[in-house]
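Practice problem: predict the structure.
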Amino acid sequence: MVYFKDPVCVKEALLVALEVLPENKNNQLKELVAFIPSTVERTHFEIPIGMIDDFKSCIIEFKKTKTYLWLREDFKNALYDMEIQLNKKIS
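Answer:
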């Protein structure tokens, strides 16, 4: 489970990341991202154990792109916060 300060920001940042990266294994991630609530309230979101690594690799690969460099700071912060939480889940 991850906690989002701004779920809309996280959802949009992940959609941008998934749009930029190759589509071969991201279809499941796109389906899961669609279930992130579109609310401005703090919330939590359950990520299946098997998809934690997929989300982590998606964020890591996206950070290597030029699109990431042009991304809004609040989107970058949202992805960074999610990455930290996902890393704690594995450790």
